Amino acid sequence: MIKEFLKDILLFLKSSSFYKGVLQTVAVITPLIVFNSFGNIIYAIPIAIGVFLNIPGNIPGTLRRKIYSTLISIVLTMAVTLIISFAKQNFVVLICTIAVLSFFISLISAYGFRGSLIAFCGLLAIVLSLVNRTTEIDLWTYVGLIGIGGLWFLLVLCISHWIAPKKDEDQLLSETLHATGSYLKIRGKLLIEKDKREQLLIKILKLQTALNEKHEILRELLLSERKQIGRSHFDEKRVLIFISLIDILELALSNTLDYSKIDVLFKDRGVLKQFKILNTTMGNHLQVLSKIMLNKKKVQNKNELLEGLVVIEKTIQKYIQSVALPAGREGIIALRNLQGYQQQQVTKIRAIRRVMNNVTKDKISFKDKEASQFITTQDYSLQIIARHFTIKSPIFRHALRLMVAIITGFTFGTLIGIKNPYWIVLTLIVLMRPSYGLTKERAINRIIGTVIGALFAVAIIFITSNTTIYMVLAAISLIIAFSLLQQSYRSAAAFITINVIFVYALLEPNSLVVVKFRVLDTFIGAVLAVIANYTLWPSWEFMNLNPTLVNSIQKNKAYLAAVSKIYHTKEIKNLEYKVARKEAFLAISNLNAAFQRMTQDPKSKQKEMQLIYEFVTLNNTFLSSLASMGSFIQNHNTTASSDNFNAFIAHIENQLENAETNLSENKTAIIKEHIKIETAEEALKSSFTTLSNQRDQQIKEGQHKIDSEMRLQLQEAHLITNQLTWLKGLSEDIYRNSTKYTVLFGRKND
């Protein structure tokens, strides 16, 4: 246990998060040390503030984006500091200025995650501008020094990128390997843990969302600078690992089973136990590889994976001997399909092993133009802000809500004589998010973290008054706080509190008063944040779900068309198919994330939760079934498509088109003609029955060993027929649910 704990500590010290924490702390502290040695500490403070104001934008991304976003935040923070400093001369003017600035800065969040961090830098500048600054430096010099601090931080960013250019990539790949391992392990449990299936499916949805978010960041990091790929062996390795991880996720999705059918086919759960064990083995293998990614050690032995496949084959043979044909054929085919899936997963995992062992000869074949199609670009035009300038926009509502909360908190704190009322404002801008659930969760974590940090700091203050210890603890706590900010907000809040208290302990003799006000201000800010999110222009998730549902249906429809196309053309390396698959995965990830946010809303605001849960599940299952069909077509020599296949595709497309029309304004469904679906369904089932009869005849004639061609034809007929039938039913359910949804919420439920 202790050994594992020490290993985890070592991994943390090698992580990108800790590396950034150290660099950011060095960037803050260095000006203080240098200027203090010359007796000019007053000039170091605004430089350190300039560094601190621009740190939030240091998230994984290309160096170019980091430079641009940091330059924008430098200009923004300087402008805000200047404006607030002028406005401070009159309280009424100051309140009005804070209101206008906080509202318009919050709207920058419309430009995505990076935009929201730039907005946070601007809001942070409002808070720090409220701190009483020294009168020994004139305002323009003070603002200029803040700008110098921002440029100094940008220089540190560039130097850190030069020293370790792939640190973020390795960290993200490691995290993705670990999360993918967890995903495979849970999917294994789904096979046999019938009673826990609903909880496991919810975990699956969360993991899918997290994995798709990591894939998006990795696409930007690995594919945006394609000119380097091919010249650098290390870049090539990372892209190959990333591609394998995407394939593993698609294969896992494509193996989503109709568990109610599995329960009927395999009432004896022992048949599926070895499949679950192999899934667990694969998951553990990936999680070990995730640690090796950072430790740079040799990968573990592959024998455990290969032995697992041998056990699976023995399990299938034992099952074949225990059941009678033709009654047991469907179960055998299901096990063979599951075996084929696990063999493919083992192949992908072994491919990652070979890359990490430097023994692969695989090359990346797609071109720069192809790579660019997989990167999601952010539109930075002013039209984005204009589109959100409506009370119906969650971002607009959030900006209004935050503005009122900040004004209320600062005015309240000032009027009752709180020592540092800007701490209330700081708590508000850190905690408040458009989502009530996330705001509440962060508020709880902030309060708990602050109390824990305060208790620890007070204990140290009672034990010793040694200023050297205070300085060391202040520096260490700042490093750890920066390192944990993205991983554990509660822990980060604890270390930020420790840092603040020890900094004040160095400046003021009565540091315990600081502790009291720190906890009080945090509590006031946290309570106000939750109340504001609940009462001021609330943006409950069910109000914003409609566009996300429509987008998910649209992308599933486009993916269906791409799958149909490769079944017709047999072009397995089809770029259009891969892009459609990626966009469908992202759309379903956004839908899952929206549903998760809805579960965090108050129970009274979770309207028609069961209907929405069914809608989300149907869209997820539809995507999984599509991925299953697409994966099979890509990995097998399939027969020519038929009119019956085309009829199914047209019928499914029509159901999705009708569902989309139900949920969208000013849209009329375009219906495709096809032969009668009942006729097509009967014909496809008849095809499988004919093949089954042929196989039965072969067995009667003494041909007990099935040849590869017959096995493939049976697998194709079984899988394609079942998947098309399943997709037909799912699409009809999606249409029915969209009708119910429209009746309850209307086309525009915001």
Automatic annotation (TrEMBL):
InterPro entries, per the entry: Memb_transporter_dom, YccS_N
Domain Integral membrane bound transporter: 411-531
Integral membrane protein YccS N-terminal domain mapped to chain residues: 72-338
One GO cellular component term: plasma membrane
Pfam families from the UniProt entry: FUSC-like, FUSC_2
Transmembrane spans: 22-55, 67-85, 91-110, 117-133, 139-164, 399-416, 451-482, 488-507
Subcellular locations according to the entry: Cell membrane
Membrane topology designation: Multi-pass membrane protein
Stored PANTHER family: INNER MEMBRANE PROTEIN YCCS (PTHR30509:SF8), P-HYDROXYBENZOIC ACID EFFLUX PUMP SUBUNIT-RELATED (PTHR30509)
Family that this chain belongs to: Belongs to the YccS/YhfK family.
Protein name as it appears in the record: Membrane protein
